[in-house]
Task: inverse folding
């Protein structure tokens, strides 16, 4: 019974550290996430973070994995909603990605800058890519899904980046993010002219 308690305590500490790191990241970006600051915010001993994470990069990698996983969960939920048409589900999935950038820009940047060289990171990003490609395939078919998926994902990333940097001002371009995403979906709609 004592082993279970120690395991549960260790997991609770790890989760508290991850929550604290997420809060620090959202408030001040990666520079605000130090193991010392994370430990202090989580209310644990100074050495506790080092027992769970090798270094800051390892902790930031975990935050990126969590972000990919959370977004994959959201997109899976969207795909499971069969009350919506495939194009509406796909549009909502793209907007969900952009919404991460809007609400948590530091987390979004971390997702696309953290190295995906660990099995856990590859799995987390791959899971989102897989469900996203399945949504694209629902609309355009499996053979066209990879290239249109790449087009949509890179376009969504560009839209998010332009909006975050202030270069996508509606008064200048006379189009909203939502309208741009809708235009993207219309452009890949089956029956449209393709090369």
Result:
């Amino acid at each position: 019974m004592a082993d279970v308690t120690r395991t549960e305590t260790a997991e609770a500490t790890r989760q508290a550290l991850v929550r604290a790191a997420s809060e620090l990241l959202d408030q001040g970006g990666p520079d605000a996430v130090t193991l010392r600051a994370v430990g202090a915010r989580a209310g644990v001993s100074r050495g506790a973070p080092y027992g769970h994470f090798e270094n800051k990069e390892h902790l930031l990698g975990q935050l990126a994995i969590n972000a990919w996983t959370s977004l994959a969960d959201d997109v899976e939920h969207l795909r499971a909603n069969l009350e919506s048409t495939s194009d509406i589900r796909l549009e909502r999935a793209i907007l969900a990605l952009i919404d991460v950038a809007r609400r948590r820009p530091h987390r979004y940047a971390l997702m696309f800058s953290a190295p995906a060289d660990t099995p856990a990171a590859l799995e987390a990003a791959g899971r989102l890519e897989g469900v996203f490609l399945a949504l694209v395939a629902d609309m355009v078919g499996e053979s066209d899904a990879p290239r249109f998926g790449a087009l949509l994902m890179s376009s969504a990333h560009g839209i998010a980046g332009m909006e975050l940097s202030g270069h996508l001002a509606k008064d200048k371009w006379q189009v909203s993010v939502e309208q741009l995403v809708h235009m993207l979906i219309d452009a890949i709609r089956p029956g449209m002219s393709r090369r």
